[in-house]
Amino acid sequence: MQKLQRSSKWNQERNVSLAEIDLASIEDRMAVNKAVQSGNVEDAIEMVNDLNPEILKTNPQLFFHLQQQRLIELIRNEKFEEALEFAQEELAPRGEENESFLEDLEKTVALLAFEEVSECPVRELVDVSQRLKTASEVNAAILTSQSHEKDPKLSSLLKMLIWVQDQLDEKVYYPRITNLSTASLENPAV
């Protein structure tokens, strides 16, 4: 209880309201992320549309990547006929509209040409990292639609600090932060 009071007092002193943190939004994004990472792309698309149907309507590249991931999951689950039908009906028309989509579609369909996906030159598409990439793209789009930054503020601030120090190095002597995790300072060599 004392910890909670201290935390509450700390928040009040810094004018931080816990109400500002939209926990429902975080939970929604986590659910979408989990769906994509576990290969349930149809569920993820439905959840994104429930959150904001404009996300996929206004971002055809994201929608294509989700559909591409859906095709990859069909191939991963050895539903080859369904995968081929899905590619022809859903993805091929999009590929005709956009050359980069067509290239991605061709790479993905190449997975069907190999009995052993491990022998395919584009086998990285069935790797877990592809799911993570797609999930990250979806998460960024949701954050953008909710007017949040897609990158954490701390990361941006640290990048800015490094850039500023690099700029200052050329002009002045100052105590430079040498270790960001401990905020260790180095006195300037005059």
From TrEMBL:
It holds the Pfam family CTLH. InterPro entries: CRA_dom (IPR013144), CTLH/CRA (IPR024964), CTLH_C (IPR006595), Ubq-SigPath_Reg (IPR050618). One of its GO terms (biological process) is proteasome-mediated ubiquitin-dependent protein catabolic process. It comes from the Eukaryota. Residues 25-82 form the CTLH domain. One of its GO terms (cellular component) is nucleus. This is CTLH domain-containing protein. The gene is LOC101262771.
